[in-house]
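Problem 12. The chain below contains 192 residues. Write out its predicted structure in token notation.
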Amino acid sequence: MQPFNALIKQVVRPFSYLAIKHEHKWIMDWVLPGVLAIATALFIFVFRHTLNIYGDSGVISRILGFIQNLPGFYIAALAAIATFGRTDIDNMIPTPTPTIIEVRAGERSEIPLTRRRFLCMMFAFLTAECVVIILASIASLSFASDYVGRASEGLKLLSGGVFVVYIFFFYQMLLATFWGLFYLGDKIHQVD
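Solution.
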């Protein structure tokens, strides 16, 4: 069982980005996507009779068309950051420095992050989250095609709730992408 647990920890490790502690990061990870998801839920409720979410050329289909090429971009960005030759990228991020809790040999340590490690964790997370969203899109489109047009009210309510959760993670990925682009395009070039 121990080797299995170790493998599972390695597979879910890209999601450790969400465990980074910083005084403002939780707003980007949870609050802003939540506000956007709630606004989307209200929009869906108002236009529920005319909005195509799960059908052909529906919202999920269009999101899938948009994001299916993003994992390649995220992996390229991750590779570039991991091998970037500038040494100042390995300096600690200035105060307030984000940290991550690591457990090694049974000891918990709070590790301050460098820009390189922060960006590597971010783009590993974005790659993993994007792949999960793509698989969820494919699964939901495959499942929904059997029920479009003849769903019960309970199933419609469930599918609406599932869509709001789906769109929350889409917004989370989108906002983290723009934050990563800000770091790569601007912040990484600023003097501490």
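Discussion. Residues 23 and 96 are 7 Å apart (CA to CA). Students who got a different answer should revisit the alignment rule from Section 12.3.
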